[in-house]
Amino acid sequence: MATEQTKFKFNGYRIIKSEISINPDCDINQKLNISFSGKSHRTENSVYILDLSTFVANEDKSLDIKIEMRGFFEFANDLEPNRQDVFFNESAPSIMFPYIRAAISTITGVSGIAPIILPTLNFAEGVRRALEKKE
Predict the structure, then answer these.
(1) % of the chain beyond a pLDDT of 70
(2) How far from each other are the two terminal CA atoms of the chain, in whole angstroms?
(3) Angle at Cα 86 formed by Cα 85 and Cα 92, nearest 5°?
(4) With CB atoms counted within 10 Å of each terminal CB, which end of the chain scores lower, N or C?
(5) What count of Cα atoms within 13 Å lies in the side-chain half-sphere of residue 80?
(6) Which long-range contacts (CB under 8 A, 24 or more apart) does 51-57 make?
(7) What is the CA radius of gyration of the chain?
(8) Cα(133)–Cα(110) distance, rounded to whole angstroms?
(9) Which range is least confidently modeled, 40-54, 55-69, 97-111?
């Protein structure tokens, strides 16, 4: 029995930059502001790269974290362009985010402060709201 080839494949990630700044004279509170920026590009036939930057800071700026991660994705050649957009804009950040969460938790945990554990996020909902704003 033949199995159908996956239409969208995650081929791994690489942390390309990580920065943390902690003010040693302040207590680190857990009221965090989290933001993202991303840039994507195609490298060859059906291979795509997503560079996802995550920024975390608390209200008094005593903690500032930046993680840049590159994710590698592949689409089946017969996948329609509109389905590629859905996979890439919603699924790709969702796939990468647990690795970003783990990196931030690890970096903060070995920095002498309580580990920062980011909440789970619904990227599909965020993409939907962003598209509604454009209309």
Answers:
(1) 76
(2) 46
(3) 90
(4) N
(5) 3
(6) 51/16, 52/93, 52/96, 52/100, 54/100, 54/104, 56/32, 56/104, 56/116, 56/118, 57/32, 57/33
(7) 17
(8) 40
(9) 40-54
Closest CA to 39 of 82, 6, 15, 68: 68
Which residue matches tokens 């974290």?
Answer: 65
Query: CA 41, 84, 36, 112 torsion: positive or negative?
Result: negative
Give the tokens for residue 51.
């560079």
**86 sits in which H/E element:** helix 81-86
Host H or E run for residue 14: strand 8-22
Tokens describing residue 131: 């598209």
> Mind listing the pLDDT tens digit for each residue in 43-62?
776 678 999 999 999 888 88
CB distance 118 to 32 below 8 Å: yes
Overall pTM > 0.85:
no
The answer to whether residue 1 scores a pLDDT higher than 70 is no
> How many residues are present in the chain?
135
